[in-house]
Amino acid sequence: MKSELQITFRNMKPSEEIEELVRAGAAKLDALYSQLMGCRVMIEIPHRHHKKGSLYHIRIDLTVPQGEIVVKREPSLSGRARQSGKREIKKNAETQTPHKDLRIAISDAFKAAGRRLQDYARRQRGDIKTHAPLPEARVSQIFPREGYGFLVSEDGREIYFHKNSVLGQGFPRLKVGATVRFVEELGEKGPQASTVRIVPKQGIQEAAKGTAA
Asked: CA-CA distance, 89 to 125, in Å (whole number)?
């Protein structure tokens, strides 16, 4: 690949087979976006004792001209269970997650990274050609402890977003009624915002006044 690639294994022995799989995934990202400057992949077993059926953490850090794109894939329940606010993960549900298989976990992580990279490339092309603003939406629900919320778009659709999608670590500042701009993608459970940008403070205040009215 053209960009710099780093592969790190934690709590597990390096594997040539897995490294080849990662290189193939990174090469696809290179093909998607020619200005990719670096790709760092971390593969980790969350517990030091390795046993059959262990789950894996995958993290991909992509260096792009104006910053970084970070994708994490960790053992968890379905999106529906996360959104319900459940904190306990039962063992029988955990064993059903597809990320118990390392190859599937890596494949899922690179697919997600590819979608994020394509979103970034589209935004970059749009900024260069037309400077067209991102669509606006308002925060309809916010769950600070769980780390997610929902937007309502101008056409009335509900769109999920995660705290990591909010630029500038602005999630704690979001309130119901705040106006944001966003980049939409299709997630496993429907539309979701891959990027959420808070509008200037004046815009947030105006949004709050409009909601109160």
From this structure: 41
